[in-house]
Amino acid sequence: MSSPATAAGTSFGRTLRAEWIKFRSLRSMRYTLAGLFAAGFGLTMLLMGSAGQKYQEVMVEGDVWDPTSFTLQSYILAQLIIGVLGSLVVTSEYATGMMSTSLTATPRRNQLLSAKVMVVAAVAVTAGTALMFAAFFFGQAVLIAQDVPHAALGDPGVLAAVAGGGLYLAVIAVLAVGLGAIMRATAGALVALVGIVYLVPGFAGAFPPWVQPLFDFWPTLGAAAILETVPNPDFPNPWLGFGGMCLGVAAVLAAAFVVFRRRDV
Questions:
Q1: Which PANTHER family does this UniProt record tie to the protein (predicted)?
Q2: Checking CA distances to 57, which of 178, 189, 230, 237 falls within 20 to 30 Å?
Q3: Which residues contact 233 (CB under 8 A, 6 or more apart)?
Q4: Beta bridge partners of residue 235, listed in sequence order
Q5: 201: burial class by Cβ within 10 Å (0-12, 13-18, 19+)?
Q6: Residue 64 is inside which H or E element, if any?
């Protein structure tokens, strides 16, 4: 029978606290978060430099101008960086050999991986939402300065789009945790993430028409439509697409738990 100290030492609360301490003590995590804001906000600044020209192009083409979506385009780059963050939470311990130590301290593997997922999800949704709000407010200020139609946070659908960007990035981070647990290597996890997030959607048009509806549930297509305030005829139910993405990520995560539990280390 385990002693009270042993039982307390392996409680979920203590495991969660330990994972949080490990997370904030690693320089790689701090650098990645700094890179998320630097690259994400930098991309926003770069895009806003051509906001007036982009607005004129949209008007000439007869499309509908969506100032909210335009200012949130940093998610395209941010999802890769947040994916690095998610994968490193697992793969960094395999790279340094610390995973054996973590498993000795927390023999319940499901508990250990669950704690990692919760820490990453909390950090990602906080950082991702902060980035989206910063990009939105900065972008709208630039649009006002350039005398381009802009949006306010209280306008219909705007708050949901900005907050949805944070949720989207959090789900991508959780996906990266699952891939990291399956691959056990940062490079392998990132290759898989790039394929899922960028390559497959990029070649969506090359698939037969009967396959096209499946892409409504693909991360950078159907789910990313939640960052738009203007109805998208290609993705009329963006939150349904986001739900589909969450189900797909849940499946990857379930596979990660199975693999993580069955391995020796």
A1: INTEGRAL MEMBRANE PROTEIN-RELATED, MEMBRANE PROTEIN
A2: 237
A3: none
A4: 232
A5: middle
A6: none
Q: pLDDT tens digits, residue range 212-222?
A: 776 666 766 78
Structure-token match 């990313």, residue found: 224
The pTM of the full predicted model, rounded to 2 decimals, is 0.91
- Name which of 218, 214, 223, 216 is nearest 242 in CA terms: 223
Q: In the 8-state DSSP scheme, what is residue 63? A: P
Say if CB 166 and CB 125 are below 8 A apart.
yes
Phi and psi of 228, rounded to 5°?
A: -105, 150
Residue 160 has a CB neighbour count (10 Å cut-off) of 16
Structure tokens at 170: 């959090």
Which residues, 6+ apart, have CB-to-CB distance to 208 below 8 Å? Answer: none
pLDDT digits (tens, 9 = 90+) for 157-190: 999 999 999 999 999 999 999 999 999 999 999 9
232: three-class secondary structure by DSSP: strand
Beta bridge partners of 139: none
| Token digits of residue 55 | 């607005």
What is the CB neighbour count within 10 angstroms for residue 3?
8
As a whole number of angstroms, the distance between CA 210 and CA 221 comes to 17
Complete DSSP assignment for 138-185 = HHHHHHHHTT-----TTSTTHHHHHHHHHHHHHHHHHHHHHHHHHH-S
